[in-house]
Amino acid sequence: MTPTTSCRLQNIYFAPPERKITDIYRIYRMLKSYHARYKKISLAKERKLIARAQNGSRKSRDELVLRHLSFIAFRLNIKVFSPYLQQYGEDMFSAAIPILYQKVTSYNLNYKDRTGKHRPVRFSSYIWKRIDGFIIDYLRKEFRTIPLASATTGEIKIVHPRHHP
Fold first, then answer.
1. Could you tell me the residue range of the domain that residue 162 belongs to?
2. Residue 77 CA: distances (Å) to CA of 62, 69, 150, 153
3. Do 116 and 154 sit in the same domain of this protein?
4. Per residue in 137-154, pLDDT tens?
């Protein structure tokens, strides 16, 4: 079997995935219009939006999510290498949006630090770890199922070393 790419590691050739390569910059172009409309707001206004969203206001919840779409694109751009960003970026971006909706409902408006002092936190500070964890989990899952083409054995699958027999 002849590989289609030139990446070679100890007689194992990486075959290109069957997935369509996407363009993350298309997301940035789409977000420009949202960014102009939904600029950064103060912490007090953001907390009012969250309170209304937690009380059932769909409009407030959607507005809060729209204000943080560019944050998801920013975290993708920071955490993911360019070839993977081009290949999986659009899928990760769309899969991260339900996480924002989930985090709106679980945000604690009465958060207190260790000393018991009331400590309001920006929504972007609240979600960044979850978004980063999601990105890592998504790529891990994708890499476990990428087919490899070997010159002698044909197709095999990548398995994490801990799970290898």
1. 1-17+146-165
2. 23, 13, 32, 36
3. no
4. 988 888 776 555 544 555
